[in-house]
Write a structure and sequence with these properties.
Radius of gyration: 21 Å
Oligomer: single chain
Order of helices and strands: HHHHHHHHHH
Largest sheet: none
Number of strands: 0
Structural class: mainly alpha
Number of helices: 10
Helix content: 55-70%
Strand content: under 5%
């Protein structure tokens, strides 16, 4: 119900918020309770941040989230990019339907996909391989089993590459990213 400028400002502030000092929390507690604050030290509380801002933007309908991100990019391009990066994570691919996963599997290099799947939950690996032909899935499983250990940084980089492909496919209209704010029948 807020105007576009206020929405953008609130998400911007939320994304930049990381913690609150113990003194500020103590002052707030004092004001709210009208009683002396506890003498025990109050640890900072993590609030907001890019992840929370990404969850907020993800919960909005597509036209609203697009306008909001566009407005954020005008204000702080890097922050907007960081929020976009948090909006889709590799684990979210489990929410894609089989057809979209199939499109993704065809668009991603097998070596990159095999490396990206190393760090994934088994249920996601099974779902993604289930979107491939039995022969291709078995070949990828064999390649993953035969290759040695991989650096976590390499796995994360491969997962980011897959997410970039997901974004490209979504922007091209090849696949649809279904968020909680969208209703389909």
């Amino acid at each position: 119900g807020l105007d576009e400028a206020r929405q953008s400002d609130l998400v911007f502030r939320s994304a930049r918020l990381t913690s609150i000092s113990a003194d500020a929390l103590s002052d707030l507690q004092l004001i709210l309770s009208h009683a002396p604050a506890s003498s025990a030290a109050v640890k900072p509380v993590k609030l907001g941040g890019k992840s929370d801002a990404a969850r907020i933007v993800n919960s909005l309908k597509k036209p609203t989230s697009d306008k909001l991100l566009k407005s954020l990019k005008k204000r702080d391009r890097q922050l907007a990019q960081d929020i976009e990066d948090e909006m889709i994570v590799f684990g979210n691919l489990i929410d894609l339907d089989t057809k979209a996963l199939g499109e993704l599997m065809r668009a991603v290099d097998a070596a990159t996909l095999g490396l990206a799947l190393r760090g994934a939950e088994p249920v996601l690996v099974d779902k993604m391989l289930g979107a491939m032909s039995a022969r291709a899935a078995q070949s990828l499983r064999d390649d993953m089993a035969e290759s040695g250990p991989a650096k976590r940084a390499d796995v994360e980089e491969a997962q980011k590459a897959v997410i970039v492909t997901v974004r490209e496919l979504a922007e091209a209209g090849t696949i649809t990213l279904v968020s909680q704010a969208n209703d389909y029948v």
